[in-house]
Amino acid sequence: MRTWISIICAGVLALAGALSASAQSIYDFTVKAQDGSTISLSEYKGKVLLIVNTATECGFTPQYKELEALYRKFQDKGLVILDFPCNQFGAQAPGSDAEIHEFCTGKYAISFPQFAKIDVNGPDAAPLFTWLKSRQGFKGFGNGPKAQAMAKFLSQQDPDYQKNPDIKWNFTKFLVDREGNVTTRFEPTQSMKFVESVVGSKLF
Question: Looking at the annotation, which residues are catalytic?
Fold first, then answer.
């Protein structure tokens, strides 16, 4: 029985990997909405996308306020923020999809699309994030106290953490231009002012 289960699991993982590898465009992917329905990212063709993995109990959670401000500022110019809650980092997104959405709308009044909770690393990683990581790998946390603290923390967990493209923590962001190209990866330690400046350059 275990042998067959192992074979089936391996097959599923191989299929997921193959789907990610074969995807030629971000618009080839589908994602799950909070209500369980399936949404094709082709609906966002021609938009500038900022794709974020988030958590509700993280030190970076106040970035929700800045993300909402960014969205309101540039929504009319074609920006869409896609929010994917993830519980993989410190178990800091423990609630259900409905609870997470209630928290985010109640405390931060977010109005950008928020999807079902996913994994972004490991064997169950969403194919979208596997693909995003293949387009923009990890390049460092930058400078400053937060960057240094994050680098120290992760190096204690895994001295080789810099050598793979995995998402390192909550509120990692990927910027996708109007043609569907993944142009920039922002680590959570990068300032939202910097994020705003780069996003703005893609809109005008």
Answer: 58
